[in-house]
Structure formats: structure tokens, C-alpha cells
């Protein structure tokens, strides 16, 4: 898991260097990027299901998996942008959710 967060950090560093902006703008844009990626999941899902009669089956389930992964990575980058201790924040939230489910 630590290696994964290191790779997320590499992506964030690259983004920070490639597109400098005011800190508030960067946080806002990185969170909004999650919505853009979600749209790509929706497009891939429609394509995998053939839900658009004009396009038919235009995507595979592997495309949906790829796009969902992009959403997760984008959210992780956004979280590290907002809080440098993102790994701890996510782990704490996940633990809370598991405990809530276990409590019934």
C-alpha cells in the first residue's frame, strides 16, 4: 500500500510542476477532475451495456475497469493535494465505514 501512495505522490508532484496555480485553485481543480473522470466511467458503462442505440456496444468491461481506476487515482491525488497525510485520512475513513457496517 505504501508503494501505491508513493506512486500517487509522483503523479501529484508531476502535476504540481506541470501546471502551477494558486493553492486554492489547485485543490478545486483536482477535486473537479474527479467529476470528469466519473463521466468517462459513465460513458464506458453505457458503451459496455450497449445502452446508446446509435453507438451500440462501443466499450468493454475492461474499459469500465480502467476508467474506475482513473477515478480512484484521481481522488487519491486530490486527497493528497488537500491533506499531505492522505493515507492516514483514507485509512481512518475506511476503518470507520467497516466498523459501521460491522455494528449493523
Instruction: Using the alpha-carbon principal axes, give the shape.
Output: globular
Query: Which series of helices and strands comes N to C?
Result: HHHH
> Which stretches are poorly predicted, pLDDT < 50 over at least 5 residues?
none
Proportion of residues in extended strands: under 5%
Counted up, domains total 1
- Give the CA-CA distance, first to last residue: 28 Å
Mean pLDDT equals 95
Helix/strand/pairing category: mainly alpha
- What is the number of beta strands? 0
Biggest beta sheet attributes: none
Helices, by number, come to 4
**Cα Rg:** 17 Å
Percent range of helical residues: over 70%
Structure in words:
With 104 residues, the protein is mainly α. The protein has one domain. 81% of the residues lie in helices and 0% in strands. Helix 1 (2-18) packs across helix 3. It starts with a helix and ends with a helix.
Topology of this structure?
Blueprint: H1 2-18, H2 23-49, H3 61-82, H4 86-103
Helix pairs in contact: 1-3, 2-3
List keywords for this structure.
104 residues, mainly alpha, 4 helices, 81% helix, 0% strand, globular
Compact summary:
The chain has 104 residues and is mainly alpha-helical. 81% of the residues lie in helices and 0% in strands. The mean pLDDT is 95.
Amino acid at each position: 500500500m505504501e508503494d501505491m501512495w508513493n506512486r500517487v505522490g509522483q503523479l501529484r508532484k508531476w502535476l504540481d510542476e506541470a501546471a502551477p496555480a494558486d493553492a486554492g485553485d489547485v485543490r478545486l481543480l483536482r477535486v473537479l477532475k474527479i467529476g470528469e473522470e466519473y463521466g468517462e466511467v459513465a460513458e464506458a458503462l453505457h458503451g459496455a451495456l450497449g445502452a446508446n442505440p446509435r453507438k451500440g456496444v462501443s466499450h468493454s468491461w475492461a474499459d469500465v475497469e480502467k476508467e474506475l481506476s482513473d477515478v480512484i487515482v484521481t481522488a487519491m491525488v486530490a486527497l493528497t493535494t488537500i491533506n499531505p497525510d492522505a493515507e492516514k485520512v483514507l485509512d481512518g475513513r475506511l476503518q470507520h465505514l467497516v466498523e459501521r457496517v460491522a455494528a449493523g
